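Incident log, structure service

09:12 report received: a user says their structure output differs between two submissions of the same chain.
09:20 pulled the input from the user's history:
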Amino acid sequence: MHTKPAKPLGFFVLMLIIVGSIDSIRNLPATAIFGEPLIFFFLFGAITFLLPTALLSAELASTWGEHGGIYFWVKKAFGDHVGTLAIWLQWVNTVVWMPTILSFIASTLAYLIAPKLATNPYYLLIAILTLLWLLTFITSKGIRISGKLAAGCTIFGVFLPMFALIILGACWLASGKPVNLHLTWHGVIPHFTHWDSWVSLTAVMTSFLGAELATVNVRDVHNPTRNFPKALLTAVILILITMILGSLTIALMIPAHQINLMNGTMETLQGFFASYHLTYLMPIAVLMIFAGAFGEMVNWTTSPARGLTQTIDNGYLPELLRSPDTLIPYKRVLMVQSIIASFISCLFILLPKINSSYWLLTVLSTEVYMAMYMMLFIAGLCLAYKFPNDKATFKLPGGRVGRWLICCLGLIGTGLTLIIGFFPPTDVALSMSHYTHYFIVGLICMVLPVFGMFGYKAWNTWQGRKL
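09:34 re-ran on a clean worker, output below:
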């Protein structure tokens, strides 16, 4: 189920793909609304999630250089059923999450037409569907084209606007202009007894998702056992620095209760440009941020779909997805993915506020992804004992104790996020009862289909079919 590109991916392109999968200016408003404590939760999230995920993924990728991705690792540890559950959780997370980032792209593009459209649900829905099917067309062309596009978008649309935002914030501070955030030691340490403080952890963890995503492309990497760990760890450092400073910049400019989750970044840039008489740069900023978000979507659209196609050979998906042409099953999964995401996008006109639907879809996708990460950390422990003689060019530091510490930290971070996800922040315009109802129904709808896949394989096996 794999088409090898003519030229393998090198360290630099791979690093850009990883950064583009995780680092996004889109995530900054969702963390900026929590103010000073976001520094604590970024560091907490890095220690209990981002670094453990990156380190474990690097070791697993370097151990099995010809294979990669959550499906292979969990399957190797626990068998076909559990591996299928893991890749399903990753894939369905992507399907539910896609409308949120597409809404960000749509609201960003609105600044080229009429900024008021950025909060118009009907404009958002039309723009989301257009972008979604454009992405489907591009990513159906294979990893070589989509990988180069994603790398270029990361340079132009992530690094440049992110650093520009941070530099503008530093100039704003240096010039003594009024700010909405005053960093103090007392403010940075959250009030642990206030539940709202912990809700910010969900936004932080969401911004760290995807560290393992590029591992599905490990077979396309030149010298993967060397280049993949190196690219992954370099990307982690860049991601952590840019996200903390970028979020603080937005919090400095806009009061927390006025930050819009979709266009808070654009409002911040608009404020900077207006103050420094640089409004003519706004269209350029819009195009750059659009490119970064679009490149991120290329990564997220491609990798989970490629991972899910691996289950076809094991009989978990219908025969109609199978084809002698190895690219056809991937294209068919992409088509199903886009159809489902199109229906989910309608939430933007059904829920009372756009912020509400944005947060709900974000948390739903994060919850199922966190369940997948818990399986990853448990698999990491299991594989070390199940295959003790496998050679890895990159080993988790600290030997056996280090492995247990890293995996347990990852389980703590993912477990906390799973619990916190059941509680909405005060800024979400949904009552607790309505939020819980939507949340539980959403989780059931996301997880239930995988049991149908189990039943499908069991039925065919019982019928004596050779799958």
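09:41 both user submissions now match this output. Likely a transient worker issue. Closing.
09:42 reviewer note: The domain at 11-456 is CATH 1.20.1740.10 (Amino acid/polyamine transporter I). Residues 19 and 235 are 5 Å apart (CA to CA).
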